[in-house]
Amino acid sequence: MTSRSDTDDYLSLFLNDVPLMDVRAPVEFGKGSFPLALNAPLMNDEERHRVGICYREKGQDQAIVLGHQLVSGDIKAARIAAWKRFAIQNPDGYLYCFRGGLRSRLTQQWLRDAGIEYPIITGGYKALRRFLIDQLEAVIASETFTLVSGRTGTGKTRLLNNLPSSVDLEGLANHRGSSFGRQITPQPTQIDFENHLSIALLKTAHQPHRSIFLEDESRLVGRCCLPDSLGARMMAAPMMVLERPIEERTAIIKEDYVIDMARDFIGRDGEEAGWLNFRDYLLNALERLRKRLGGDRYAHLRSTMEAALDLQQTSGDLGGHDEWIQALLKDYYDPMYDYQLGQKQGRVVISGGPETLLNWTQQSA
Asked: Any idea where the domains of the chain sit in the sequence?
């Protein structure tokens, strides 16, 4: 393997999707990492904890001795083997620890002893994180943004993913941004969300464009919080309003929240448990709207949803879902959206169907 120098070219790492080997402990990795980083720790959580106690009580030298005692023999051999696999599979990658210090150097030395030269990211995770925070604010301050708005079920994310220079905030947050919006996989931590957002904006900012397109979101996408600076820019950004007939919106809602979610739950949990978990997902999402819907309306919608689920389970017929979907759209989501849009009318630059908006963006992007 050709020897390469250590690097502090953080921008190049993220723009080029360079593979990263994170040798921090799993607990550190779980709190925050990067999209293409693989956790291959020098020490596991318990070992790190014990070394940390030793460091505080007896100093660095004794902590290093303990670390070598804990990571030795078969344990050391297994970790070096994992690093070698990563290095061989990712010859253009880099490794890092928290600050690019002792753990990175030790990993690098053990790899060298095993016959592999592998470079370090100078400054480690802390420097990479600082770079992304600074770049996130810089991009937010310097770029022009245009929002894709529209009533629930118009397919805003579908349109967004066909637009030039777009960033999918819901995709990054792994949440569709409503009571029904959770996915079967968990949302990222706030730090991971911010890291992914910064990288996505950086990549978009380095492509030819006039504006970055975002979906019109509130401050929270599930539990992921948009940066205050981005929220402020979005509150003043021009807007495209996507429009579709109620029948098309119903079909989109049914595909996203019924067909796809049932498939995902069953694929993950098996036929029986998956169906029950999918059923609970829909009913619990409706339950979260209970206070805002009011008792009578909630009871009617729940009864309608349960009947639709029973019909789907027994016959595969999805038609029963249309009634509760359209009732929620007409009586709950649409009035709320129309009120909010009324506060933003001066920012609307174009309204229409997906082809109209797509053509407009291609002419103006």
From this structure: 10-130, 144-365
Spell out the per-residue pLDDT of the chain, length 365, in tens.
Answer: 567 999 999 999 999 999 999 999 999 999 999 998 999 999 999 888 898 888 888 888 788 888 888 878 899 999 999 999 999 999 999 999 999 888 999 999 999 999 999 999 999 999 999 999 999 999 999 999 999 999 999 999 999 999 989 999 999 999 988 888 899 999 999 999 999 999 999 999 998 888 999 999 989 999 999 999 999 999 999 999 999 999 999 999 999 999 999 999 999 999 999 999 999 999 999 999 999 999 899 999 999 999 999 999 999 999 999 999 999 999 999 999 988 888 888 899 999 999 999 999 987 65
CATH for 10-130? Answer: 3.40.250.10
Q: 20-22 and 212-215 as β-strands: parallel, antiparallel, unpaired?
A: unpaired
Of residues 74, 105, 58, the one with CA closest to residue 66: 58
Which tokens belong to 305? 């949803």
Catalytic residue positions, numbered: 97
Helix segments in 114-168, DSSP class H: 124-142, 156-160
Report if pTM > 0.85.
Answer: yes
CATH topology of domain 144-365: Rossmann fold (3.40.50)
Distances (CA, A) of 66 to 37, 62, 63, 70, 72: 27, 6, 5, 6, 10
Residue 357 near residue 350 (C-beta atoms within 8 A): yes
Query: Alpha-carbon distance 39 to 170, whole Å?
Result: 25
